[in-house]
């Protein structure tokens, strides 16, 4: 992100949700606030069928897999949250919320008290709050905004300064962001949640796989998207091999509930569509739960057990403090390490 400027990709993601809500059938996600949350340019592009067709069916046609991914990731997070609420979870942390409108839609639909915390980069959050003010919508009383820059600050520091309840499990979503972060920032944030949140807490996030794990015929599509993201000032730097990420989060005390490939996402949410919307092959959706046995893992870790276990896999170095976050450096040959340059993530501008 450019300093002093709200995230442009957050705006693009909202424009994708608005486009889908206004013009697609059947809907994967219905976001009736997305249109008014976008800026003037996108509101104009979405204002009638012709400008919409020009923008989405001509100029941005190649972005269709990314558009599908933006819709599917939010739908998946909201479905997973609904299931978690049935199990009694009553606090929701939306990490890097961008122009996500869940809090507005939820408060209209349900009377239940879900405490919602929106965490985001202060520049993006300030711009969103201004837009919400100009929309004159009433915000849910149980919504709190918390500013945080993950390249400088840990999520636990941000949560400690908020109304977050550490003693109760929470649900976290982290969508469309790890693609733009260094591995240190991504793994540092996951570790910070693992150390701070109560056992049984859950997180849904999306991540980009490394280009090497994709067929060569996908590379030109991916390069095009990467170029576009870089031009918007938000280069894609976060590609991770699934096996390496799994080793890292398991060592932190997470259970892996699901890790959906694009095929899994397609069969769950985009099956048999006339418009052939289908999520990009480059992004996966990961659902994690903090193990109830985490205490035991921490004690084992404190005794150096994790170091031995991890050394066996050859994938992790011991975490070490880097700025505000602890660094779980990846050693997988497909992944970035301090010694190797960071792998450019292939896709997911949003
Ligand atoms: C593509 S947007 C995704 C927004 C939203 N989650 C969605 O799905 O539409 C990326 C988000 O990451 C946030 N972000 C980028 N770098 C960040 C950082 N260093 N610290 C905190 N948030 C960051 C941006 O402010 C933006 O809200």
What does this structure look like?
Helix content is 43%, strand content 14%. It has helices at residues 8-23, 34-37, 40-45, 49-59, 64-86, 102-109, 122-135, 155-160, 183-196, 219-231, 242-252, 262-269, 294-302, 305-313; strands spanning 91-95, 115-120, 143-147, 171-174, 202-208, 254-260, 283-290, 320-322, 325-327. Strands 3-2-1-4-5-7-6 form a 7-stranded mixed beta sheet, sandwiched between helices. The protein has a two-stranded antiparallel ribbon with strand order 8-9. Helix 6 (102-109) links the parallel strand 1 and strand 2. The longest helix is centred in the first third of the chain and has 23 residues, at 64-86. The protein is globular. The structure holds S-adenosylmethionine. Residues 1, 7, 9-10, 13, 96-98, 100, 120-121, 124, 148-151, 175-177, 180, 350 line the site of S-adenosylmethionine. S-adenosylmethionine binds at residues 1, 7, 9-10, 13, 96-98, 100, 120-121, 124, 148-151, 175-177, 180, 350.
